[in-house]
Amino acid sequence: MSEQPETELDLEQDLPEQIAVRLAKRERLNELNDAYPVSLPITHTIDGVRAAYPELEIDVATGDKVALAGRIVFQRNTGKLCFATLQAGSGQRIQAMLSLDKVGEEQLEAWKELVDLGDHVFVAGEVVTSKRGELSILADEWLMAAKTIRPLPNMHNELGEEYRVRHRYVDLIVRDRAREVVQIRSKVMQSLRRTFDAQQFIEVETPMLQTIHGGASARPFKTHSNAFDTELFLRIAPELFLKRAVVGGIDRVFEINRNFRNEGADRTHSPEFAMLEAYQAYGDYNSIADLTQQLIQNAAMDVFGTHQVELEGGEINDLGGEWPRISMYESLSEACGQVITPETPMAELKKLASSVEIEIDHPLPGKYVEELWEHFVKGNLVKPTFVIDFPVDTSPLTRDHRSKAGVVEKWDLYIRGYEQATGYSELVDPVIQRARFVEQVTLAASGDPEAMKLDEDFLKALEFGMPPSGGMGMGIDRLLMSLTGLGIRETIMFPLVK
RNA sequence: GGGCCUCUAGCUCAGUUGGUUAGAGCAACGGACUUUUAAUCCGUGGGUCGUCGGUUCGAUCCCGACGGGGCCUACCA
């Protein structure tokens, strides 16, 4: 649905009928009183009143007076008695009743004339139940709290996907699940921070604007600083700064913040996305895997009270128990029926790749191994699984394996076939790190736009000595997807739209 | 990047094998109604059929370009 240029509300011509009508009502309200009063004598909340009268009989008058406000989501007017359903931000609702004998003819007529679906209104009156047993406020008076100029969408059909994303504020008003997802996200964040706090991790914030982008392989967004007259990049990862923090003695450190990657957007990728990274001095990829499992299991338990999380559509995502750790090379060998090791020659990998129609052209064998692994193994991983010990040449920030040649101490965590997190025994030897960067720069020179750049200051930091460490990174949006079964654009309140 | 599909009222959707005046439900407007729950009943208005161009006596419909969206594919720690 293509958007017309936004309607100019002060151009009185060419307005959709309903907007023109509501603007006229706004004028009228301002003449009578105020369409947007600065404050109202509210004494109660909708949630509070609902909680205070959980089970009243039919047609009860309590004698209790309350004054509250809410957004009108349904309206039923009869001649001398009007009903409206008021909704709070929580989604809780309560009925307001306006009768001729309580509010008088003038106020009743004004209500019928000036109040529309979507308006915020204030009502003060007695808590009662109607003859059908609905908990209600029988109003003695009402006031407009905020006049709505645009009509709410029809609440009896699902909103279109595009409308929901482009008008999330409306989606949040009319769809309970939209509000729920926002709350789940907030609770997950709280839970993650609690788990970190319980283990003495410190939360920090590192630069989003960087002069050299590093810590991952991805194309960056570029911008320009006028003050420094220099090219800047939005960060693709916080890794190199968090490691500087570890060098400085922040031994247990984490950051939850946005990353930006200038690449494709689909059901599992967003150009800006929330990232969690954590580093633990004197830990390694095993201890950081333990931590990652705890973070996710605690979040499921804190938010849903179970490790068996029910997803959109009813599927159960079982996050319980100890998560298996399988070797990349061994699981690939098993799945493809041919022994693949770090020594397997390039020609053989290429042959296997083309036999399953993987068409890539890359100078390094590790890339082929990862592609083959994704083809043969990834799709079958439903339960949470750590895939461990990756090829060395695709993991420039990771330490060589302590006992296996040709692989590094790195894992990826897969949940329901999605890559959920990654963890390393961090490479802390500044000499080897420099050599790895130089290889990456060579790759970049040969045209790989995702290869990393040489960050001299980061290398200098390593030269001051970084303790042996484990580190991990996890996409928060993806975690929400795993916990809800929703697409990434439903887990982000305001995803980027063109 | 490649392929396929899609865009009709404020919202959700029908429809026109190219032909007078493009429909429904909710929403809106006028009226009736003091116990409604998507209230009901009577009546009314509301559309550049995404945009621009082409074919045609005639285009919302066919064709092309552009724009928005979706799906698949490719790319993607």
Describe the structure.
There is one protein chain. With 498 residues, the chain is α+β, with helices and mostly antiparallel strands. It has 15 helices and 18 strands. Helix 6 (176-198) crosses helix 8. Mean pLDDT is 90; it is low at 1-12. The protein binds one RNA strand of 77 nucleotides through helix 1, strand 1, strand 2, strand 3 and helix 4.
Largest sheet: 8 strands, mixed
Task: Please identify the oligomeric state.
Answer: single chain
**CA-CA gap between termini:** 13 Å
The number of E-state strands comes to: 18
Set out the fold topology.
Blueprint: H1 17-32, H2 46-52, E1 61-77, E2 81-87, E3 93-99, H3 100-114, E4 120-129, E5 135-146, H4 161-166, H5 168-174, H6 176-198, E6 202-203, E7 209-210, E8 222-225, E9 230-234, H7 239-247, E10 252-260, E11 272-281, H8 285-304, E12 308-310, E13 316-318, E14 325-327, H9 328-336, H10 346-355, H11 365-376, E15 385-391, E16 407-415, E17 418-425, H12 430-445, H13 456-463, E18 469-475, H14 476-484, H15 488-491
Parallel strand pairs: 3-5, 6-10, 14-15
Antiparallel strand pairs: 1-2, 1-4, 2-3, 4-5, 7-9, 8-9, 10-11, 11-18, 12-13, 15-16, 16-17, 17-18
Helix pairs in contact: 5-6, 6-8, 9-11, 10-11, 12-13
This protein binds one RNA strand of 77 nucleotides through α1, β1, β2, β3 and α4.
